[in-house]
Q: What sequence folds into this?
C-alpha cells in the first residue's frame, strides 16, 4: 500500500510530519540534564547534614525580633524611595528610547543604536551595575537608584518597543492619510494603542525595582539590603527574619497598589 | 514647475481644479512584477466613480497611490495643479489634507472616543502639541458636532470607537474624512465588511454627502450591483489594466467576463 496508490478505493491517510530538529534538540537537552545532575554529587549523607543545618538556622530565626524597628523602617523607606525614583526616572527615559527602537516607525540607522543601548542596559544584573555605581558615586542610595534606572530602561524600553511593533498599522494609515505631521501620527495613532500596556510594564517594573532595591544594599548601594547583610554577618538571625517578613509585607502592599493602578488604566 | 502648473490652474474654475488625472501609473512592489501596469484615467471634478475588479488586481494599490499611502513606481497623478506622485515631506502632507479617505476596516482609533476620531480629521491643521492636549479650535469642534449630526452619530460622541458596530464605525470614518474638508473622497472597499442593508446605507450617506459638497468620489468596490446602483461611472480593472471604462448601463456580461474571468458565476 504505497501512498501514491490513490486510484483504487484505498483509505487515504494523513500523518503529520515529524519535526526532526525539535526531536533531536529534546533528546540532547535530556542527555545534558542527566550529565549535569551527575556532576552535583548529591548523596544522602549531604542531604541529611543540610537538613540539620537548615533546621538549626530556622530555629534561630524564630521568633523574629522587631526590637530595632528604627533601623528596619529607615532601611525599608530608603528601599522604597530608591524603587520609586528609579522607576519614575527609568520610565521617563524609556519612552523615547523605546520609540527610537521600534522598527516599524524608525529607520534602521536609528533603531540600531537604540537597541544597542537597551541591550547594554539589560546585559548586567542590577547588583553588578550597582557595584559600578558605588565605585563611581560612592556608597548610598544614589548608587542604588542609578543602578535601577539602568535596569528599568533595559526592561521597559525593550517591551515598549515590542509593543509598538505589534500595533495595528491601519490606524497609522488613517492618520497619515489626513496629512498629519509625524508627531501627531504618534500621538493619535500610536500612543492610544500602547498606553495600556505601557502602564502594565511600569507597574511590573515598580514591583521588580522594589525587590531589587532590597538587594542593591548588599553591595553598599543603599536600602534595607545593607541592614540585612549586616544582620546576617552578625548572626542576628532573629533580626534577619524580622527584615525578611517586613520585605514580604512591603512587596504585598505594592502588589495591592499595582492592582488598583492597573484597574484605573484599563 | 509645480508653480507654473498651479498658476495656470488658478485661472480655471473651481470645478476643474477638483479633477483628477492619472497618467501611465505603474506600481511594482517587486521589480519586474507590476501590480499596476500603466493606468491612465481622467476623473471629472464631480460624481461617483466606482472601480471594480477581482481581489489582488491592484484596486487598493491604485487608490492608495493617489494619497501616496503607497508610492508609485512611475507615472503622474495630477490633482489641483500638482503632481501628487512627485510630492514628498511637507508638500505631501499639505496635499493629503485635502484628500479624504474611507477604509474597508474603518481604521478608527479604537481606544479613542468618537469625537476624538472625528477631530483627528483635522490633524493636518493643528500642531502635534495642540493635538496632544486635544486643543482643537472652537470652529473645528462645532464642525465635528455638525458632521456627527449629519452621519447620525451625535449621541455617540463620548463613546469609545471599539464599542461601535461596523456600520456605526464607518459612519464615524466618513465624518472623519469629511472633517478634512476634502476636495476628493477616496473609499477603499468601504462596504466589504458590512451587511447588505448597512452597505447601502453607508453608500447612500457617502454619495449624498459628496453631492452636497460637490466633491468627486472614487470607490473601490467588488459588488457589481452596488457599483451599478451608486456610480456615475465604472472603471473595470483586471490584472493591473483598465479593461472597462464607461457608464454603469454600458457594463455588460462580456465586460464582466473580461474583468473577473470565467462565466459560470454570471448566470
A:
Amino acid at each position: 500500500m504505497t501512498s501514491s496508490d490513490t486510484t483504487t478505493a484505498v483509505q487515504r491517510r494523513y500523518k503529520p510530519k515529524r519535526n526532526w530538529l525539535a526531536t533531536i534538540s529534546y533528546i540532547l537537552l535530556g542527555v545534558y540534564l542527566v550529565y549535569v545532575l551527575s556532576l552535583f554529587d548529591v548523596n544522602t549523607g549531604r542531604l541529611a547534614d543540610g537538613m540539620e543545618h537548615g533546621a538549626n538556622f530556622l530555629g534561630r530565626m524564630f521568633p523574629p525580633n522587631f526590637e530595632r524597628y528604627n533601623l528596619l523602617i529607615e532601611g525599608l523607606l530608603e528601599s522604597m524611595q530608591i524603587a520609586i525614583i528609579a522607576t519614575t526616572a527609568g520610565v521617563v527615559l524609556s519612552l523615547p528610547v523605546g520609540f527610537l527602537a521600534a522598527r516599524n516607525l524608525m529607520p534602521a540607522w536609528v533603531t540600531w543604536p537604540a537597541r544597542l543601548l537597551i541591550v547594554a542596559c539589560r546585559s548586567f544584573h542590577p547588583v553588578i551595575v550597582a557595584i559600578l555605581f558605588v565605585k563611581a558615586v560612592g556608597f548610598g542610595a544614589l548608587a542604588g537608584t542609578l543602578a535601577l534606572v539602568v535596569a528599568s530602561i533595559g526592561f521597559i524600553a525593550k517591551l515598549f518597543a515590542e509593543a509598538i511593533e505589534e500595533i495595528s498599522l491601519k490606524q497609522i494609515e488613517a492618520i497619515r492619510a489626513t496629512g498629519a505631521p509625524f508627531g501627531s501620527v504618534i500621538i493619535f495613532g500610536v500612543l492610544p494603542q500602547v498606553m495600556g500596556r505601557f502602564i502594565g510594564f511600569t507597574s511590573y517594573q515598580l514591583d521588580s525595582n522594589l525587590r531589587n532595591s532590597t538587594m542593591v544594599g548588599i553591595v553598599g548601594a543603599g536600602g534595607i539590603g545593607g541592614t540585612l547583610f549586616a544582620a546576617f554577618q552578625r548572626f542576628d538571625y532573629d533580626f534577619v527574619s524580622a527584615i525578611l517578613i517586613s520585605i514580604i509585607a512591603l512587596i504585598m502592599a505594592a502588589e495591592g497598589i499595582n492592582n488598583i493602578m492597573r484597574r484605573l488604566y484599563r | 514647475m509645480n508653480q507654473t502648473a498651479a498658476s495656470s490652474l488658478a485661472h480655471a474654475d473651481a470645478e476643474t481644479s477638483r479633477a483628477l488625472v492619472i497618467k501611465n501609473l505603474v506600481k511594482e512592489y517587486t521589480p519586474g512584477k507590476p501590480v499596476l501596469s500603466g493606468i491612465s484615467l481622467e476623473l471629472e471634478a464631480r460624481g461617483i466613480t466606482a472601480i471594480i475588479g477581482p481581489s489582488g488586481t491592484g484596486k487598493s494599490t491604485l487608490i492608495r497611490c493617489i494619497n501616496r499611502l503607497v508610492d508609485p513606481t512611475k507615472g503622474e497623478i495630477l490633482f489641483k495643479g500638482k503632481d501628487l506622485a512627485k510630492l514628498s515631506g511637507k508638500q505631501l502632507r499639505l496635499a493629503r489634507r485635502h484628500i479624504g479617505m474611507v477604509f474597508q476596516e474603518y481604521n478608527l482609533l479604537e481606544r479613542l472616543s468618537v469625537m476624538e476620531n472625528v477631530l483627528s480629521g483635522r490633524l493636518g491643521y493643528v500642531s502635534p502639541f495642540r493635538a496632544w492636549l486635544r486643543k482643537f479650535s472652537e470652529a473645528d469642534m462645532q464642525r465635528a458636532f455638525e458632521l456627527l449630526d449629519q452621519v447620525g452619530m451625535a449621541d455617540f460622541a463620548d463613546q469609545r470607537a471599539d464599542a461601535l458596530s461596523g456600520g456605526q464605525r464607518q459612519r464615524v470614518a466618513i465624518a472623519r474624512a469629511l472633517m478634512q474638508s476634502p476636495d476628493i473622497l477616496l473609499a477603499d472597499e468601504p462596504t466589504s465588511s458590512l451587511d447588505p442593508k448597512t452597505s447601502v446605507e453607508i453608500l447612500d450617506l457617502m454619495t449624498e454627502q459628496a453631492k452636497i459638497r460637490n466633491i468627486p468620489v472614487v470607490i473601490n468596490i467588488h459588488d457589481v450591483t452596488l457599483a451599478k446602483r451608486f456610480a456615475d461611472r465604472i472603471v473595470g480593472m483586471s490584472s493591473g489594466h483598465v479593461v472597462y471604462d464607461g457608464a454603469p448601463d454600458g457594463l455588460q456580461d462580456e465586460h464582466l467576463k473580461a474583468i473577473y474571468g470565467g462565466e459560470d458565476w454570471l448566470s
Remarks:
- Residues 71-264 of chain A form a domain with the MetI-like fold fold (CATH 1.10.3720.10).
- Chain A is about 75% helix and 0% strand.
- The radius of gyration of chain A is 26 Å.
- Chain A touches chain B at residues 168, 170-171, 173-189, 192-193, 195-196 (CB under 8 Å).
